[in-house]
Structures are given as C-alpha cells and as structure tokens.
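Saturday, quiet lab. Running sequence design on the structure tokens for the scaffold JK sent over.
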C-alpha cells in the first residue's frame, strides 16, 4: 500500500487548495447613486472577483 502514498498526499494537497479557493475572506460592495455599482469578493487563496452592476462590463478575476 505504500506505493499509493504519494498519490494520496498529492490529492490531499489539491483538496486543501480547492478549499482555500472556496473560502470567502471578505465581500466589499460600493454604491453609486443609491445602487450597488461594484462588488469585490476576496477568497482565502488570494483570488479576487470583481462583479459590476453594469451589464456592459465583464466580471474580472484577479490573482
């Protein structure tokens, strides 16, 4: 069974990274003229997703 030890450890590391990518650390919402303008969601892995209320702007993912 020791032949699979490296594979199991590698999978555990992948699962930890996926969990960090799912854990939200903060949500920031900015308002303009009494409507939400921009929403920034920060994750534990350092990834930030910026969503705009304006449909002409696309969502931006930053690392």
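Result came back. Writing it out in full:
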């Amino acid at each position: 069974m020791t032949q699979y030890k490296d594979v199991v450890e590698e999978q555990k590391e992948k699962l930890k990274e996926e969990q960090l990518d799912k854990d939200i650390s903060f949500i920031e919402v900015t308002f303009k003229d009494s409507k939400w303008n921009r929403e920034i969601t920060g994750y534990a892995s350092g990834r930030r997703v910026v969503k705009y209320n304006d449909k002409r702007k696309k969502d931006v993912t930053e690392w």
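Notes for JK: The two ends are 38 Å apart (CA to CA). Helices lie at 5-22. Ask whether to fix the surface positions before the next round.
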